[in-house]
Amino acid sequence: MKTYLTLAYLAFFPYYLVAQDFAFGSLSPEDIKLAKNDLDSFSNAAVLNEYGKAFMLYNDTKGITELYVDYHVRIKIFNRDGYKHADIVLPAYKDDTGERVDVLSDITAATINIVDGRVVSTPLDKGQLFKEEVSKYLTHTKFTFPDLQDGSIVEYSYRLVSPHIFNFRTWYLQEDIPKINSTFEAVIPGLYTYNVVLRGPYPLTTQDAKLHKGGFRIAGRDIDCSRMIYGMRNIPAFVSEDYMTAASNFKSAIYFELSDIYQLSGANLKITKEWRDVDRELVSSPDFGGQMKRDNVFKPLLANILKDASDDMDKAKAVYRYVQQNIKWNRYLGKYAESNVKAALESRSGNIGDINLALIAGLTAAGLDAEAVLVSTRDNGVVNEVHPVLSDFNYVVAKVNIDGAYHLLDASDPLLPFGLLPLHCVNGKGRVINLKKPSYWVTLQSSQKSTTQYTFNAMLHTDGMLKGKLVTQSKGYAAYRKRQELANYNTVEEYIEHVDETLASVDILNGEISGLENLEAPLVESYEVELKLHADSLGQEMSFNPFFINRLNKNPFNLDERTYPVDMGAASEERVLLTIKLPGNYEVTAKPDDYNLALADQGGRYLTQTELLEDTFSFSQLLALNHATYPPESYFALKELFSRIIQQEKIDVVLRKLTEE
Hints:
Largest sheet: 8 strands, mixed
Radius of gyration: 31 Å
Shape: globular
CATH topology of the largest domain: Immunoglobulin-like
Oligomer: single chain
Number of helices: 11
Strand content: 35-45%
Structural class: mainly beta
Number of strands: 37
């Protein structure tokens, strides 16, 4: 959920509110008494108080406006599992030139313990501050608090001076531990206009503003500022769970985006651009549009690449396979190329931009209609669809249009079939960039679902040994994941040994795998297996669990409340079909119930059925989740569905031999 806060109105709100930092080391009786279960049952630490202030000063020497951020936080560590919250990482960024650099200073930290009723404070030795060069754009300053104990209170503060003012300062009200209080003060000169957005499920408990006279000075002139105060109290911890995109999409936070700068001359410099401006910038960029145009690099290669292609789809697949097999991903993301198409092909290496912009150039050289699609990956967060913000995007894929349909392509993974995006790219919408036409949005969705079918045909022998053939057929994302898993083993035989160890009650006697080379074909695993059934002493009664294949052991949904969607990335379907030939006349004395459970709005279903016809026992199971994404309102239905599946899978089938009359 997003709430847009109107900055222009806040700037002249007549109510005067005083927000100020809390004194370092000044504990209250409530801070000391606070215990783990006072807030919730699962958090191992909590923020007692948090304060931040961001303001801007003009640097006459550098001739730029800089952002100053003062931050102060006090955290209580309840137990050893909460010690990780005393490992602090402070990021500092710089641009390509290395000249516009964030500077951290005034780092103060201390651990406070109560020893024999006395408050004992242990300050951080500044020699214990460590710097780590994460990349050419990012440096981490790290430290760990000294003298940690269960019940310790840790406190630190710092100042950050940054030339990066576009996003002002994002303030995260909600984190993965609860907060008793969080207050943020933003002082923004009247020369700068920001779009301000509150994201997340919880309302502010404080939102006030006043006019701050002469708070910014430039060229000898004092400029009035807007002083905004945002606060929230008793904030629940954000608990991450399976099937979600970036947590930042759902945590309560305040986001800023610079839209206008008013110059002293009276002119207005509009920062928030229109998409036509961004289109022009990208198409003219040598590292983006310039690489899309490098179709000449592929023209000498086309005769060989397209030698077996008979139509446009064959051409597209041939070019896709060529790029996929000839440029290896160097593990760096990016929407821009780091080198160029020719260099990437020659070195056989490149980042995401190099690979997929080369793919677009190759498709164009083959006479196909190809475009670029800017993407924000799932762990990077959703993009702003209201205003074009290029920094929201961290990835680029190709789009090829054939016979009235389009296909989204990512050639960075040699195991991805044509037209199947990796799930980390299936995230909201992407922006399509065309060299000649205006850009537009496209929904990023999976073109195939994840499908798995297990078929087990077997014969039960009088000694209780069940022998037969287990065939697993995987399609779509299921096949892609299986191929990724297989790639971790040196041989197919090693993988089969792994499967044998995974199926604890089953022995694999023989096995083979087909469909490995053809990425668009199903992946088929065939195993000759045997397993011993439980039998009574007389051999009259035998039992087994029919859910021995891919049994669900844990409910992925365990929260009391989930305020964000369940995002699986793709629809899925899993079937299990067992057919067992019995060695005589048997009856079924116990079995799982036949189920037919359905989710609302055709969201999915769960079916099980057992049947005994003469000497043949059969069992079938279907779990179909028909939507890629489910809203929070569907959470409890999903939770209940999986809970019932787990209970169902605990029930054995019992077969009793009938005596002959």
